[in-house]
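Field: sequence (string)
Field: structure_tokens (string)

Example rows 1 and 2, in order.
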Amino acid sequence: MLIPHPSMLVAPQSNDIEVQQVNLDAPLQNHSNIPSEFVWPDDEKPCLQPPALKIPPIDMKAFLSRDPEAVANICAEVSEACKKHGFFLVVNHGVDKKLIEKAHKLIDAFFCMELPEKQRLQRKLGEHCGFANSFIGRFSSKLPWKETLSFHYSNDKSTRTVEDYFLSSMGEDFREFGSVFQEYCEVMSNLSLEITELLGMSLGVSRECFRDFFEDNESVMRLNYYPSCQKPEVALGTGPHCDPTSLTVLHQDQVEGLQVFVDGRWYSVAPKEDAFVVNIGDTFMALTNGIFKSCLHRAIVNNQIVRKSLAFFLCPHKDKVVTPPKELITNENPKKYPDFTWPTLLEFTQLHYRSDVETLDAFSRWLLEKNK
């Protein structure tokens, strides 16, 4: 079903932070000629019918059963995928289907509000949470054809970070919204911690190694909303990037759009209703001393229907030092990156956005220069 998209995206802000309106007089999805700010160069235009990426469906129930044979087979599959491109699926994850459905319905409820209402949560310059319509104020070209809402989650059980955020920012009418996403983030945090156990065993370190590191995680939840686009062959919902965070646990609706760059070409990751897509981010790649890969990916749009996704970005506590376990540093694989904290990498990505496969190398050089 085509969901209406009543809001209008706003053009990039000028240096004096005045908001200028893109020349739009109707919702984005109704325009046959999209604004030039959203047109991507020929060498970056989307591939609308790429081949499917073969990624393993990982049975979390089987992994958590601790059956030695099942665990060994699952770890081998995850290791192969993460060394090649960092993407895999998790199935039999135990997440309540009704909770996922509620979360997707609330995406509709938020993004179909009038723009002034959504702008009550407007992301401020220099921040990475809040409502953003195409990252206005940060870029003047190659804008993504989407809107997002991002918010913090803390795994401190004495707080209800998400619920408090929506109540304080949007009022009592958003109590249910905050409650649902508080629960969703708690479930995603638990699932992410289980996945870190799997990743640890796949690397040959202890099951608890990465789980302990992320137990007190301070993560980010993002709701993605991609309106239909009359010229999907020239626009992108999200440009090519690597996630700077540790892990991304993504639930797609049933509209295809995610693409991954592997061996010099783009592949699609088809939606699977009962599965989450997991991918390695830059921070976790550093934790593995470069053994597991953070891979370029992007999102395309279509000319018929809205696409939505729920992305939970696992991030370590701000005081945790990102450094690989000693077992992963060898003569054959010496230490690749300097130690850092997640806020420092976040600062770098805010200054130098549109992260690519060389982000960690560039960050390492920047960090060494900064610490001279």
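Row 2 begins here:
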Amino acid sequence: MGSVSRGRSLFNAATAHQNIVCGRAHQISALALVVATFLLTRVLDRLYCIPTPPSSYLSADFEESPAGSLFDHSGSLYWLRGFHGTSLSLKIYVYEEREVDGLRELMSGRDGKISAETCTKGQWGMQVKVHQLLLKSKFRTLKKEEADLFFVPSYVKCVRMNGGLNDKEINQTYVKVLGQMPYFRLSGGRDHIFVFPSGAGAHLFRSWATFINRSIILTPEGDRTDKRPISSFNSWKDIIIPGNVDDAMTTFKGLTIVQPIPLSKRKYLANFLGRAQGKVGRLQLVDLAKLYPDKLECPELQLTGPNKLGRVEYFNHLRKAKFCLSPRGESSWTLRFYESFFVECVPVILSDQVELPFQNLIDYTLISIKWPSTRIGPQLLDYLESIPDAAIERMIARGREVRCLWVYASELEPCSAMLGILWELQRKVRRFQQSVETFWLHNQSIVNRDLVEFHSWRTPLPLP
């Protein structure tokens, strides 16, 4: 028995020693594996990682890093994945002029003589272009019941300017149109989209505050409380869109009518190409140009007559300066801001209330300058003159990449104003819509105050 016990003791001791040795070996191996995995992961991250979309693609280290590019390795805009989900999944219903009595008048005037082609031209042409692009969009639906959003076409700014409707007629026609849209009544207008392209914004429809104060408004204009008691722009629901630059300057698949010239060949430090119109800031620039004619070009533009400046001459003048001054006119936005990017001139905003598009993507401090409109004078020229050409070139390079977002082209293009607008619209989609005139029952039936189900609502519908 003694020998057996001793044998068992020796076996147990050896086994225990072996367990201790193996345990330590395992610990060392595990630690080595953790370290190796960490180092390998860091190496693979550097080689193959997909960059996280930054808060602005135009980061401060743009000139050193390719990550500052507008596009990712797949050719998609950086911001789209990061801020608005992984893909566009919109369904937009576009009202046809034949289905709603009055839409024809809002698009071509009381006599139907104003053409879409006429209204496409000029700085307010986006009212037509957005409509035409939506008609061709793959996100258009022909079924109202499945639509996320509804687009109401109107060329009312152009129609008004060409004498097709007066202010009273515009107001009456809009009210008539809205009264024929059950889905507008269903949501209180929350899912309906309107384009108002001028400085007046939705004020072109005098009763906008009563009828479309909850609707989505696409406009280049922001706050106008400097001119009116209430602004029609609401940053929570509305979308700032770019102005309409002449198509001949935005064609990237061919040569534009005017090409930029090197900084060293530009005759002026700055220019302002526009009419004074009796506006304080513009008059100050005219006076400043008289004092410093070698630095600031500020001709009085003629829009009619034999001295009218054609579009080629206009852009030829615009490209002669390093900085393009953009003061406010009747309203805070100015098309000159967008035009300057296509002649590669750094825009200088002299409009304190201005709102700019796609601010969740673009850091405007890296592609433009905003100077107080109360300080227009020699100090402005001194400041601009102090900026080295290398810094100007960097701003121009960044602007060259972002300007595709000012071009009203199909959403199928890798970068366009329409693509940006669609992504912004996707942020406005709600799963549930209601108005003060909609009620619902336990079986999800939508009814009105008379308990009539939605599919039985008849037009014209009463409006507030």
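free_text_note (row 2): The two ends are 107 Å apart (CA to CA).
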